Amino acid sequence: YVKSLAPNQLVTVGEDGFYQPATCQANQANPVATTNGGPGGAWPVATGNDYLPNHMADGIDYASIHMWPDNWGRTDKAFGQTWLAAHIADTKYLGKPLVLEEFGKAVGGYLPIDKQEGPEAQYAYYKQTYEAAQASLQANTGLKGIMFWRWAGVDPPPSWQTSTRAPPSPP
């Protein structure tokens, strides 16, 4: 429908990129284990996302994923690498480029106090993610774009209101 109104508009699904067990083996990349008090369990398959079939439609121009280690309870370095590698590999199957359209890393704020990480962890996560993107671009393996969604020095606590003054970002 969108293409009938705007034929030159690029269209994507805009989902997290979770896999369903019935459609492929890559569901092993789903964020089901918990390392920081996140939800864990089988919740990714209950979201309705089905990465491969959702992106196969003719009207979809490129594949897109999100990556939220804190929200998904997977802050370990290996998870981010596995998540990106699985989706980059699937670009060959889909025949469409991939954009990591939403990613971020929490610093303090809404996480339980014993699970909060500092700006150094955020920097390391962003560095790892951008290095993976650069390697994919240089190797021409499918990942063609990357956009951060959250670049805050410190996340507000859960009690934050619009009238609350946010702390400044660290230098």
Automatic annotation (TrEMBL):
SUPFAM superfamilies: (Trans)glycosidases. The keyword Signal applies. GO terms for cellular component: extracellular region. It is found in: Secreted. The keyword Repeat does not apply. This is mannan endo-1,4-beta-mannosidase. Its main location: secreted. The lineage of its organism: Eukaryota, Viridiplantae, Chlorophyta, core chlorophytes, Trebouxiophyceae. Belongs to the glycosyl hydrolase 5 (cellulase A) family. Pfam families: GH5_mannosidase. GO terms for molecular function: mannan endo-1,4-beta-mannosidase activity.
